[in-house]
Amino acid sequence: MHNPVDPAAPILLFDSGVGGLTVLAELRALLPQAPVIYAADNAGLPYGSKTEAQVAARVAGLLGRMTERLRPRLVCIACNTASTIALGMVRDVLEVPIVGTVPAIKPAAAMTRTGVIGLLGTEATIRQGYVDRLEAEFAQGKRLLRHAAPGLVEAAEALLRGAPVDPAHIAAATDGLRAMPGGGEIDTVVLACTHFPLLQAQLAEAMGPGVRFVHGAAGIARQIARLTQGQPFARAVPDIALFTAAAPEIHAYAPALAQYGLSAIEVF
Ligand code: DGL
């Protein structure tokens, strides 16, 4: 017998920064009544330049403490870097259902006409065996060109603090893809970091016409909805954003967070 789910139990969305908001936007559309806690590990940002061991230890440790304290009904690791490195391990150690975020290579392979797919992710994500396995399983006969675009993480963070996006970060990402052998034929780009859809308009302009972008946010939201189907939802307190470091700039995110229904900022 399962215990009945507390209607006020939140869904916990976790990322290193604001990238997971791209998943939250899709989740709101599907489950508007769901109580949400959005956790940003700004003390650990960026994950992309860390080692596998650092990311795994950080994510497992934080999620362990967060699930104990916040009692979520489900955890979504809304971060490709953390998911491709630590999803299996976190699932092994936590009792709560975990939804991960992995690069949308399967839909990209179905969409491409030229057979050449670009993939933008963090340095850590693009070297993961998880990505090799997705490529082998779903992109056979296609070319998958992977490019690390850490500057886009910084640019997306700046954008949500209300600061301008440095066009050099956008150009570095798209020029990097185009400069790879076969890069001129890319017609589909996988945004394999949850921060990057926040910059899709700028990336689309820089890639030029005829390039389609694909990411997993909508699919992840559907998966969360499936796993919580039939559960009662009632928001007892306003949804909050939790940051792991009490840095002064966290308050600059408040207007953007409010647009995602996160009306207060707290430090974990
Ligand atoms: N949002 C994270 C992802 O999806 C990465 C950002 C970072 O480097 O911390 O990969």
List key phrases describing it.
268 residues, alpha/beta, Rossmann fold, 2 domains, 6-stranded parallel sheet, 4-stranded parallel sheet, 10 strands, globular, binds D-glutamic acid
Rg value: 18 Å
Strand order of the largest sheet: 4-3-1-2-9-10
Give the helix proportion (percent range).
Answer: 40-55%
CATH fold category name of the largest domain: Rossmann fold
Broad structural category:
alpha/beta
**CA-CA gap between termini:** 33 Å
Strand content: 15-25%
**Small molecules bound:** D-glutamic acid
Q: What can you see in these coordinates?
A:
The chain is an alpha/beta fold and 268 residues long. It has helices spanning 21-30, 52-70, 80-93, 105-111, 123-126, 129-138, 150-160, 167-178, 200-207, 217-227, 254-259, and strands spanning 11-15, 36-40, 74-77, 98-99, 116-121, 143-148, 188-191, 212-214, 240-243, 264-267. The protein folds into two domains: 11-101 and 218-267, Rossmann fold; 105-215, Rossmann fold, CATH 3.40.50. It contains eleven helices and ten strands. Strands 4-3-1-2-9-10 form a six-stranded parallel beta sheet, sandwiched between helices. Strands 6-5-7-8 form a four-stranded parallel beta sheet, with helices on both faces. The two termini are 33 Å apart. The model has no long low-confidence stretch (mean pLDDT 97). Bound molecules: D-glutamic acid. Provides the (R)-glutamate required for cell wall biosynthesis.
